[in-house]
Amino acid sequence: MRNKQRLTLLCISGLLAACSSSRYQYSDDHAPENIPQLDDIADAVPTPQTYSRYANRDYQVRGINYEVWRDIKILTQEGKASWYGNKFHGHKTSNGEIYDMFSMSAAHKNLPLPSFVKVTNLGNDKTVIVRVNDRGPFHSERIIDLSYAAAYKLDMLQSGTANVHVELIIPTADNSSLFTPKPQWFIQVLASSSEAKAQQIADSLRAQYSTENRLVISGKFHRVQLGPISNTEQAQELLTKVQQQYTNAYILKELSSKTVSNK
Known about the structure:
Layout: H1 2-21, E1 59-61, E2 64-66, E3 76-84, E4 105-107, E5 115-121, E6 127-134, E7 142-147, H2 148-153, E8 161-169, E9 182-192, H3 195-209, E10 213-218, E11 221-229, H4 232-242, E12 250-256
Parallel strand pairs: 3-7, 4-6
Antiparallel strand pairs: 1-2, 3-8, 4-7, 5-6, 5-8, 9-11, 9-12, 10-11
């Protein structure tokens, strides 16, 4: 029986190592073909969770031993971040979950799984909160591997890597509510390939309806959105007014803990 248990544990460890190392046996990663509206994806919400039973043992990849920091309480790191996307989408993470490149997740070599971290792009001060559920990147100069959605939010898709600051978040029953995204609503008015035209319309609508607005870049288009609006009743009332001029306008609901305003 002991030999059988030992063999089971060895198989599990082997699977974890294979999951971690196999990402470098693929060809170069690439962006997906069909991309959803990533601006509407909220940060991960730090909540108390039970550590994975099998994904938090020390392990070895490519002959290098890695220690899992099971009792860590404080961590700040600075270094390079990378991202991984389409070639891993739908495959299992080291945590045993299915990788979703459109979720706010990440991979780390040493943090216990799952963990939550705040990542700041030092080049533009943009920040995200992600849930760490995978191992990697197994590259000496990189400290964290971000999902496609998280990399998009940090504006680092084109560069591939970015210098970042990583801060561990220890969720508790008391502080998890601080990170709970609140619902807010926007009125999607129109999309224009001309940024100047979109800005002109946004300014006109802001003066007309005395409300905030923003421009959201989606490919070659600039989307004019009114908001944020704090409740659905106000959003519906404003939509009725806007549709008198822009008949194709519609309501967007977004979960966000960040203040959004027009650039």
